[in-house]
């Protein structure tokens, strides 16, 4: 047997990524349908989704502690889950791109946010919140931020990133170039 579990490991990773994608989509759908739901139903459904994310995060922690070759892949998913659980990121698309380590897509999303604001499709508050989320995600992925972007982040007090401060430095370093 030459694969030594390589195919099984890849299948496990694909299944976990699929589960993360499903939970993020569920969270996104929930936010899109919020107006159609009563408040109790919304809160209960959101809590259930966050509980499922916590369970997935715990599974990833157990799996990554046993196999170092999976640490990088699982850590990426765990960071995205922590972001969602802590609600530091309110935008499911940002969580998804962050979890998949997609800085170019995050940059494109940032341009879309600016464009939606220019077209008066979103408020200034919503633009600032989404922009801050995207810039924090890019910063945590060790992407270059302009002086203007860094200044913007310094001015924003609404985005909470305490979940990142709790992470050990070796996990944060995994996202470096």
TrEMBL record:
<dbReference type="InterPro" id="IPR040065">
    <property type="entry name" value="LZIC"/>
</dbReference>
<dbReference type="InterPro" id="IPR036911">
    <property type="entry name" value="ICAT_sf"/>
</dbReference>
<dbReference type="GO" id="GO:0008013">
    <property type="term" value="F:beta-catenin binding"/>
</dbReference>
<protein>
    <recommendedName>
        <fullName>Beta-catenin-interacting ICAT domain-containing protein</fullName>
    </recommendedName>
</protein>
<feature type="domain" description="Beta-catenin-interacting ICAT">
    <location>
        <begin position="118"/>
        <end position="168"/>
    </location>
</feature>
<feature type="coiled-coil region">
    <location>
        <begin position="6"/>
        <end position="63"/>
    </location>
</feature>
<dbReference type="InterPro" id="IPR009428">
    <property type="entry name" value="ICAT_dom"/>
</dbReference>
<dbReference type="Pfam" id="PF06384">
    <property type="entry name" value="ICAT"/>
</dbReference>
<comment type="similarity">
    <text>Belongs to the CTNNBIP1 family.</text>
</comment>
<keyword id="KW-0175">Coiled coil</keyword>
